[in-house]
Amino acid sequence: MSYQLELRHLRYFLAVAEDLHFRKAAERLFISQPGLSRQIKQMEDDLNIELFKRHNRKVVLTPAGLYLKDEISRNLKNLDNIINHAKLLQDGKQGKLEFGYVGSAMQEIIPNLLVNLKKKHTNVQFGLKEMDNQKQIESLLHQKIDIGFVRLDRVPKGLNIKPVLKENFCLVLPKDHSINSTNFKSLHQLKNESFILFDPSYSPSYYEKVMQIFTDSNFTPTISHNTIHAASIYKLVENKFGLSIVPKSLQQGYNMNVKFIELNNIKQHATLSVVWDKNNRNPLLSSLLNMI
């Protein structure tokens, strides 16, 4: 058996596998639909593998096709990374790292890492994308980012996770609220208030940890709003729509009419972790992990 495949066959296959529609895939690839059909048929014949089930106008991946879609997509991404890295070397640059992160990681952790990495790799390039925890995991599994900073306790098989910051939570109140650091005794004092929290989809484990704080304070909070952005939380608190609880590091970088009371007498702590794909071959990733 000889495989007469070219890179274009793989890209054609992925286009059809993603769209599950030959005409749409052909338009995206700027080739004719009959030409695309011939290329896919040639690939199936050469591999002796049926990749698609064709039912009238409906196209469905076979189990073998679904497997190849995932594997080829991952490995083509690796090939793209290799070629892009070679181009960076050609241009006198030393490489690029794609970061995903939750907002609090940008307060100190990531800026300090970038400064130190720049000292060692002068011409390194960075891509920075703020995204929720689950989006980071998906992006890591598909190698769209090299490293993520998440608030999760566990990650899927194939990814590594390492805690980098353990910090206290803080209560967030409007600046003119009657409760302050002097007269604050426990969260139970605020049982009749409404609370604004990070959305559970942001991180189910993080949300559960915050809810445990309320359980330990012997009340169930009234949650008026959920959001995924700290700035939105602070704006709502500032305008007296409720109070909030956030990691201590999120005190920095915002200039709003709110105040913070550190909850240093509770057992719960906010943990920021770094997560990466153990099979990622980006040479800069090892250097970054050594710094961490």
From TrEMBL:
Record's keyword annotation contains DNA-binding: yes
GO cellular component, one term: protein-DNA complex
One Pfam short name: HTH_1
Gene3D superfamilies: Periplasmic binding protein-like II (3.40.190.10), Winged helix-like DNA-binding domain superfamily/Winged helix DNA-binding domain (1.10.10.10)
Keywords noted in UniProt: DNA-binding, Transcription, Transcription regulation
A molecular function GO annotation: DNA-binding transcription factor activity
Domain HTH lysR-type: 5-62
Family named by the database record: Belongs to the LysR transcriptional regulatory family.
Protein name (database record): LysR family transcriptional regulator
